[in-house]
Amino acid sequence: MEFKDYYKTLGVSRDATAEEIKKAYRRLARKYHPDVSKETNAEQKMKEVNEANAVLSDPEKRAAYDQLGQGHGFQPGSDFQPPPGWDAGFEFRGQGSNGAQAADFSDFFAELFGKQMGAGARQAHHRMRGEDHHAKIMLDLEDTYHGATRSLTLRMPKLDSQGRTVLADHMLNVRIPKGVHSGQVIRLAGQGGPGHAGEAAGDLFLEVHFKPHSRYRIENKDVYATLPVAPWEAALGATVKIPVPDGQVEVRIPENSQSGRKLRLKGRGIPAATPGDLYLVLEVVLPPATTPKEREFYQTMAQELAFNPRQNLGV
Amino acid sequence: MSHEIDAILLEDAKLNLDELARSCQINREWIIERVRWGLLLDEDLITNDPAAWLFDSRSFMRIKRIIAIERDFESNPELAGLVADLLEEVEGLRARLKASELNED
To answer: In chain B, which residues have their Cβ closer than 8 Å to the Cβ of A191?
Structure first.
């Protein structure tokens, strides 16, 4: 395990005041805020910043951490195992003082402050329901059309054989309800933190997002797809067979259609309680003009149709 | 482990005030104040008795977001509500851009 330099993560000196640490944290929280940041790995960076802040903004944790670096001579990046009794004389309060989810923190943090995380956070003699955990799940669009079972691996605090709290992978097979859409939350009863003294485990809440799809684009419950059509199909109208997320359909293309025209298939979007719609956006694809015969067709059109696509531009 | 676990959509089993407070590790009075101030954008909640309040996915995510903004930036609740409004609007516009096959840049 690597010794983490929390001061470097926040970009402050080792003698930084509490106010300087607070300012540095806010600046980085803004920079790496996952909702708006354009930085690569913003979410991971935000977790690191949260973890550093959880230690350095808490006087007890900071003092214990400082003692490790100075008293025991650990250097950033060096291989690390906490010396026995390293935390003697310190009393830690709860998990990260900023309320970030303990499961987001590193093994290094778990090793140092594990007794305060998740399962170890409460006094054993207190009867207390386990904490709820929050995470995200990335689904394929098809999962919501058919319902699906997806495997999910989460890092969760657990007690090891010696009673210490460690972060361990926790694998779940989750049955995804049909009709779920992005931004909704699904709940897995009893899959959060363990309960204490016989109390129930907490629940796991998963925020749903969709993976990008090669063919479909999603806005709320509506689904968009591009439908390529030949010029004669767009001009004369046609009925074409196309794949949709839940199978195949035949669609009638109205005559005199243009590229960009949207055809709405009502209720064929995400099958929520009130289903979304499926929009097919027409894209007229021109046949190539490479062979003499193909070129002749285009020349005939040019002569016979007297068509000026730039008429609206006044030229 | 291999057995399958049913996931319940929050819209099918909404959270009451105590469940939301426990899940977000925040006290219920903190939530009641923000609902009364209109920060959850749900008029039905404001007028009803808190004992009858039920929170769906959107309210759950919005409360989590407001908690994070107030905590990370020590902002006042109204500013956190404003930032949450803007972030939701950005998310909506990004989804529309993607649906239209337009690039953000």
So the answer is: 5
Which of A98, A205, A279 should be substituted to probe chain B, the one whose Cβ sees the most B Cβ atoms within 10 Å?
A205
Residue pLDDT, tens place only, A50-93: 999 989 998 888 988 888 776 566 666 667 666 666 665 555 54
Q: Show the tokens assigned to B76.
A: 């006042």
pLDDT interval class at A114 (50, 70, 90): low
Q: Which of A166, A183, A211 finishes a domain?
A: A211
Q: In sequence order, which ranges of B13-56 are alpha helices (DSSP H)? A: 17-24, 28-36, 43-47
* Same domain for A295 and A274: yes
* Cβ <8 Å between B5 and A188: yes
Ramachandran region of residue A230, left (φ > 0), alpha (ψ -120 to 50) or beta? beta
Domain finish residue from A79, A96, A116: A116
Give the A:B interface size as CB pairs under 8 Å: 102
CATH code for the domain of A50: 1.10.287.110
ipTM attached to this prediction: 0.92
CB contact under 8 A, A177 and B64: no
Q: B interface toward A at CB cutoff 8 Å?
A: 1-13, 22-23, 25, 57-58, 60-61, 64-65, 67, 71-74, 87, 90-91, 95-96, 98-101
In the chain, the amino acid numbered A128 is M
Which structural domain range is residue A172 located in? 123-211
Q: Is the dihedral of CA A288, A289, A293, A295 positive or negative?
A: positive
* Enclosing domain of residue B70: 17-99
Report the CATH number that the domain containing residue A151 is assigned in CATH.
2.60.260.20
For A133, which residue in chain B has the nearest alpha carbon? B23
Residue B30 covered by a domain: yes
Nearest Cα of chain A lies from the Cα of B47 at a distance, in angstroms, of: 25
pLDDT for A69 equals 72
Structural domain count, chain A: 3
Question: Which of A173, A113, A179 lies closest to A143, judged by CA?
Answer: A179
| Total domain count, chain B | 1
